[in-house]
Each structure stands twice: as structure tokens, then as C-alpha cells.
Amino acid sequence: MAGRHQMEAHGIEAVTDVLERRGVPFEVVEHDPTYSAAAEARAAAADLEATAKTVVLHDHDGYRLAVVPASERLDVSRARELLGASHHLRLATEQELREDFAAFEVGAVPPFGTARLPEVVDVRLLRHRRIVCAAGEHRCSVVIAAVDVLRIAEPRVADICEHAEERFRADEPPSS
User: Fold this and answer.
1) How far is CA 98 from CA 21, 23, 115, in A?
2) Which of 12, 104, 111, 119 could be cross-linked to 155 through a Cys-Cys bond (beta carbons 3.0 to 4.6 Å apart)?
3) Closest by alpha carbon to 66, among 166, 156, 165?
4) Which of 63, 145, 71, 47 is closest to 100 using CA atoms?
């Protein structure tokens, strides 16, 4: 019989394997399947601001991850600038996620545990001691210390969320 590390782990096993190998304390929260970060926060009885939403982006030279609180929306322009990406940066499609992130269910990619990707984490998540993260499948989440996401992924940290006042200004017609 093949050892656990000889077979490719999937979903929660892939996530907990990374955390165990790195010596990161964590808690697995099992819940009914969720399909959004906001639903995951409710299922895990966590604040939206303390729940990480991993956004997989695709550029001409590969994938990048952006991690924001479930309460916020990613500002792709800010992420593009911080990651040094091209103007081709866009959200990855479900088909791309199925093919290139096969260890995880679509929409449940964790903010760590993938191949080394350029990554940026929004500074708002670091305001919380512990955060809820996707665990590779829709029926489980992991709770870890926010600083451990930094230790594992070694991301850039910045403000990468949309600002309401900027969104409203963009919607206004130009003044005459």
C-alpha cells in the first residue's frame, strides 16, 4: 500500500497535510456545504471580516492568488499593481480551476498549500488573531492564526480591496 505522501492528497487532506508538515496549529470546522465565503463564515460561526476569501487570478504567465476578507471585494487593479501583473490579469475560470487546482473543489481553494504562486493578502485579515480559511472542499473550513498564513505563504501584505468611495466615484457621470 502506498504511503500517504506518495499519493496526491485532495481537499481537506491536502490542506491539513500542509499545516501539519509546517507545524501550524489549526482547527477543522465541518459544516453543511457552502459556496461563498460569506456562507462559510456563517457556517463556521465567524465574522465576515475574519474569514479569508481566496481569489484565483490568471495572467498570461500563470496564476496568482489574492486573499481578502469575506466582507470585501478584491480591487483587481490594486492586485495587478502589487503583483506586477499585466493588463491581462483576470479571474480564473471554473474550468481552469478544475484543471489546474484539481486537489481542491472549485471555489474552495485555500490561501496556502498550492504551488508557490505570487500571492497578496489584504491587510484587514491581519487585524484578527485567528481567521477562517477554505479547506479545499465546501464542507470544511480551517481556523488558523492569521500570522500563520503569512508564515506559510510568505505573501505581500497590502490594501487590495475596493473602497466604497472609489466605486461610487467611478459610477458617477463625468462633470461638465
Assistant:
1) 25, 29, 15
2) 119
3) 156
4) 63
**Closest-CA residue to 91 (of 103, 105, 73, 104):** 73
In what side-by-side order are the strands of the sheet with 140-145?
27-30, 140-145, 130-134
Please report, as a single letter, which amino acid is at residue 113: G
Domains of the chain: 11-162 (3.90.960.10)
Instruction: Please state the pTM of the whole predicted model.
Output: 0.86
| Beta-sheet strands, E only, within 11-161 | 27-30, 52-59, 62-69, 90-91, 119-122, 130-134, 140-145, 156-158
The grid cell for 37 is 465565503
pLDDT tens, the chain, 176 aa long: 333 333 467 889 999 999 999 999 999 999 999 999 999 999 999 999 999 999 999 999 899 999 999 999 999 999 999 999 999 999 999 999 999 999 999 999 999 867 667 689 999 999 999 999 999 999 999 999 999 999 888 899 999 999 987 765 555 555 54
From the CB of residue 170, how many other CB atoms can be counted at a distance below 10 Å? 8
Residue 113's nearest CA partner among 173, 49, 170, 52 is 52
